[in-house]
Amino acid sequence: MLGHTSRHVTSLTHMYSNFIITSIVVEIWFKCAAECPYFVFESALQLISHLIAVFPCSKYVTEEGQRIVGGVLIGTGLWIAVTFVMRNVLKYLLSWHGWMFNRHGSLSLTTKIWLVLVKVCSGPKPMLYSFQNSIPRLPVPPIKDTVRRYLESARPLMDDEQYKRMEGLAKDFEKNLGPKLQWYLKLKSWWASNYVSDWWEEYIYLRGRGPIMVNSNYYAMDFLYVIPTTRQAARAGNSIHAIMMYRRKLDRAQIKPLMVLNTIPMCSSQYERMFNTSRVPGVETDVLQHMNESKHIAVYHKGRFFKVWLFYDGRLLLPREIEQQIERILADKSEPHPGEELLAALTAGDRDPWAKARSQFFSRGKNKQSLDSVEKAAFFVTLDDTEQRYDPENSVQSLDSYGKSLLHGKCYDRWFDKSFNLIVFKNGTMGLNAEHSWADAPIVGHLWEHVLSSDPVRLGYTEDGHCKGNPHPNLPGPQRLQWDIPEEGQAVINSSLKVAKALADDVDMHIIPFNDFGKGLIKKCKTSPDGFIQIALQLAHFRDKGKFCLTYEASMTRLFREGRTETVRSCTTQTCDFVRAMMNDKATKLKLLKVAAEKHQDLYRLAMTGKGIDRHLFCLYLVSKYLGEDSAFLKEVLSEPWRLSTSQTPLQQVDLFDIKRHPEYVTSGGGFGPVADDGYGVSYIILGEDLINFHISSKHSSPETDSHRFGSNIRQAMLDMLDLFQFDNKASNK
């Protein structure tokens, strides 16, 4: 794979650099011998003499030549030793996570010393994959700790009788079956890079047989308040060029790895399959097909598919040249082939019918060639014939429509199997729709931040809205893909479209740009912004439904090799105590809020440092199924529905955006569909000091949910919680 090739190239580059450095050290060593003959030079000559004596050389090699060979051997040995020691020292250092448990805004002396050591061992200019061999493996938590934390998380959601029963099941599992399953899991953790990630990818994503549209794929939005150009082709030209420039940097491993506190590296393995990747349907399980290289993209417009080469004369096309190709597609008036317009609905419906149709109708001839052009493209582009944007005069409806369009579109105008789709609307607004199995949202978010920061600022547009530069006079045009889909195949397409339409029509999407206050004011309250928002979501949910529910918050485990996500169970006993106090207007509300926020931060730290609950229990369950051992405890735990699924979209490259001077030029975040039929999906992004965007989804078919009602409850919960601090400040001032 290209990602692995890039990693090896990067590794060889570092090896060569280290060898040069070691050679220089050896040279300096010998030069210094003039001043220290009895310490350095003499010892080096004695070592070389011993080597010559022990390993006799050819009589045709002079003594001087033998000394050179000896010097090279010593230099090589020293280089290997230094590299090995530095790598393992860094790995040992990165296995310590005590730094995460420091109080917010302060670092202990131990942590400061540790950070300096990590910095020294990391080198001056690390590349994307520089740390991969030094990042530690994800540890397997003790059974006892996982069971204890699970019971603690389950307590606020159960009455006394239910809890007593679950406690009995848990203790029985901990004593009897658990240790046996744990032994197998530890065995896997010794030889696997990550004991969770391969099973997570296969069983949570690739083995799912339902539609991935809405249920799995997610979206990312454009700027909220500005469109750099209203020319669809021009916006596509700049964006496609920016994406390909990102791919070039990715292939060369020139992207700086994500670092916590600008020092602690996170795993970069998920970047490897960002481009040239497609999810291929199978009857029992899908597979991820990744190409070493792809020099074209697939473009969809008004029911037609096109193949567009992005290289000419050995170079990447410039933005104006890509715009020229897109203009040709927009000007093409040809009609779709029979079945072509709705073809992508196969990727939006159930997986088994798509797998069978692919084998039956797309395994030979022109259909196979055209399908290969789509699946082996660098990425997929949809030139949407609708207009979407934020309208201040109709903010609610315009944003809801925009979000739904990015999430599912018309159900046949996005290729949901591609690693990601770039969607460019008729009026120049754009967005992404990403498949979830190959990586998590922060990886796509990193790409999207690069694109948005490049588009209006670095690349820019002419006064009349075109990309800068000139069209190419001899550029070959896009290639129209040819299809010959029989009536039976068209029937399967229509059947998949029917399933997808029913799913899409049921989505109740609501987006709130919350600008009453942001993280600036929350930090003044000496509270974690994420903890504050999570507690507000609990208060809003209780007001919305009159009850608490099992809550999922995604956190990253990329401090470990090939780490993906872990669950933070945000509905805690402490949070429930605070919510009840708010509902009963008790005087201890502020104190309980601070306790709940601190508890949430502790849970988040535990999840990030490999001490979470849910991935461990998930893997234990898989081992039990493999061994044919039934566990009532594990079966009940994994069948519990997540009626509130939440995720924060982090802004990772803050230096790319000048939010204070240009708050309009910043991503609006993204969202996903509801996880439970009677639950909510909530994504949020904290932008600068004064803005938080919420993306809320649910299902119209559930009588319990209403995304707009829940949005109103979130807004009110945020304001009510802030009032607690303001009232407290007023009392203190008196």
UniProtKB/TrEMBL annotation:
Reactions it catalyzes: (R)-carnitine + hexadecanoyl-CoA = O-hexadecanoyl-(R)-carnitine + CoA
Active-site positions on this chain: 436 (proton acceptor)
Membrane topology: Multi-pass membrane protein
InterPro entries: Carn_acyl_trans (IPR000542), CAT-like_dom_sf (IPR023213), Cho/carn_acyl_trans (IPR039551), Cho/carn_acyl_trans_2 (IPR042231)
Enzyme class, UniProt record, top EC level: transferase
Pathway: Lipid metabolism; fatty acid beta-oxidation
Keywords per UniProt: Acyltransferase, Fatty acid metabolism, Lipid metabolism, Membrane, Mitochondrion, Transferase, Transmembrane, Transmembrane helix, Transport
Entry's Gene Ontology BP terms: carnitine metabolic process; fatty acid metabolic process
Domain of life: Eukaryota
Gene3D superfamilies associated with the record: Chloramphenicol acetyltransferase-like domain, Choline/Carnitine o-acyltransferase, domain 2
Any Pfam family: Carn_acyltransf
SUPFAM superfamilies linked: CoA-dependent acyltransferases
GO molecular function: carnitine O-palmitoyltransferase activity
Assigned EC number: 2.3.1.21
Compartment list: Mitochondrion outer membrane
GO CC, alphabetical: mitochondrial outer membrane
Name assigned to this protein: carnitine O-palmitoyltransferase
Protein's organism: Sinocyclocheilus rhinocerous
Gene (UniProt): LOC107740564
